[in-house]
User: What shape does this take?
Amino acid sequence: NTTGSPTTTTSGTTSGGDCGCTYVVPATAYRVDAQALGLKPGAVICLKAGVAYKSLVFKNVRGTASAPITIKNCGGVATVNGGTGWFGIRTEYSSFFRITGGNVDGSYGIKIVGGKQSLHLDLLTTQVEADHIEIANSGFAGIMAKTDPSCNSATVRGNFVIRNVKLHHNYVHDTGGEGFYVGHNNYLSGVNTSCGTRLPVVLEGVRIYNNIVKNSGWDAIQVASTPKGALVYNNRIENYGVKNVLYQNHGVQFGEGGVGKLYGNLIKGGKGNGVMILGNGENTVHDNVIVNTGGHGIFCDD
Assistant: This one.
């Protein structure tokens, strides 16, 4: 925690208002524990425009398939400033929920500025949708969606699957590292922990589409640990890999265990390869426009 003492929000509920809010996040909030607050499936959690939010943790946000919980802006663009901290918005132990800044193309009702990971879908977060969010000046990744394996058995492959991560209609720009970092990149080798080598969980049902990614420091979009396939389509990527870090400067990379389909994307101008596929069979790449790359248009090898 780099933003002060963690505080579980215990007040701020509303009776609805123009935005249909079940609960409005107070300006002083750090951790919003939906379970502790009694927020049920179908609840609407609001971020108010004009409030100077700092880093926010959303924990135990648990909807259902038929009644997801929604986290949205209210009254205009809501801004969260992660500063130099570890994250802007982080989610933990949450499922069947959506973080949205609206439904209109080109509108971004939530803006996240800074934080090492501006939006971190972390700690067994699954069944999540994030859309219509502008993300800028991330210390590292704009959007990170993965769970690091640890000595907690729930975080180890075979015990949990991250399902149905949908990331769409977001504008991610000027990131220190990847624009999108989806899935753990140590799919084959695992992670060394105090309880031995632990393999990361896999993701199924990943969809990354209709996003704009500009000026990413490293890869614009990186996907890994999706052995059953991910879809990456209709994205616009410009000026990727600006820091020109070796092996980290591509437009789209399918890394370890990163099987997927890549189509309908514009990849324009960058330091490394337009598309990088590392040792995965069953990848499909078609109908993309790849222009002015610093390396190969498409590189596929073991």
Remarks:
- The CA atoms of residues 238 and 281 lie 27 Å apart.
- Residues 1-16 have pLDDT under 50 and may be disordered.
- The longest strand covers residues 226-233.
- The chain is about 0% helix and 45% strand.
